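<goal> How does this chain fold?
<body> The protein record starts here
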Amino acid sequence: MRTDQPGLTETYQAPAWDPKLAEILYEFLRTSDLRPNELNPKLQELERQHGASVYSELINLLCHLRFEPDEARKHWRAIGEHRESMEKRLGSFVDVRVALIDYFVHVNRKLNNPTIIELKLLEQTQAFAYRDELTGLYNYRFLQEYLEREIIRGSRYSTPVSLLMVDVDDFKKYNDEFGHEAGNEILAAIAGLLRESVRELDLTVRYGGEEFTIVLPSTTKAGAELVAQRARKTIEDHDFAREAPQRSGKLTVSMGLATYPHDAQDINGLIRRADQALYMAKADGKNRVQLYGEGSRSYKRIKAALPGQFRDLTGEYEPLITMDISAGGLLFRIDRDLPIGSLVEVVLPLPDTERGIVTVGRVVRTDEGPDGFTVGVSFTDIGSRDHALLTDYIRRREPPSKDEAEP
């Protein structure tokens, strides 16, 4: 994106982390002889789909070193050049795995005592570490790593992360009546229904016992509520007699929903808030979705009347006055209507800062009143520096809530 307004810089969205990428690479590494004419096209194809993360995952699989994606890509290119150099010196084919180990032992010294492990054994070890054996879902250990990464991305790119805690209603009674084997069949079935009810990019986890967790990256609380209600209804309508014949055919789940950054600022806080909402759902009659807090907003909002400017991306700057501000968008007053869905650029000076922010957002609301038009804009492009300035401004003017003051 380009603009003639000073202070606006280009921003780049990092590719979303796809937890299935490592499994795709496992399968390819196990079935390929890793010759460059086969390996390089496959990596290029995966890079188009997953970004530079493919190199980070690949190096981690082959030698258990973890790099940021861009650094990993540089290392992989250097490994390719090193392999070619070794072939010239030796006069014979060099396996890329041999070149990789030699590179990290002798050229870029990251490995002190390398250990060779058979790929199938490594795959089994990794699968055991991150997968729940009963349901096939990812487990709590994987949730911790995944959620931490998504919250870092959410902070950097001003995107919310929603978390659902899911608990099977009255499961203990079911287990006591029909036995643990039938209970395990039901848990596996519910795991499948939850996974099928969410998007491919969402992560479904067995949290423990009869409790599940769903992570919804880049999803507002309102959007996550729709996903949760769909999943809840799917389970309510399912006839579990298919999985456990001659037994009760109906089960329900309760869900608690919390969203970063509005409800919590870190992993533990987000899990705790979602768990508190789940407890309320149970207390209020079960088979329901409970949102943490009073509303469906994903970001804290503060009232603020600040003068700024806006323009649609082909027009001239016009004045605006903000009504409220959040890290995810603005509500402001102007003297004309804007079409829902249109993109606007907003320039907003912030008091007590060296400079204001410049961001691009999409119009999600417009209402006409006696003093003009009230317009709601959800940010679609905001630089990390601008986002930090905005969130700091909001935090300095928003006293901590009772919940946030908890130890």
Remarks:
- Residues 69-90 form the longest helix (22 residues).
- Confidence is low (pLDDT under 50) at residues 1-17, 402-407.
- The first strand starts at residue 161 and ends at 168.
- The radius of gyration is 25 Å.
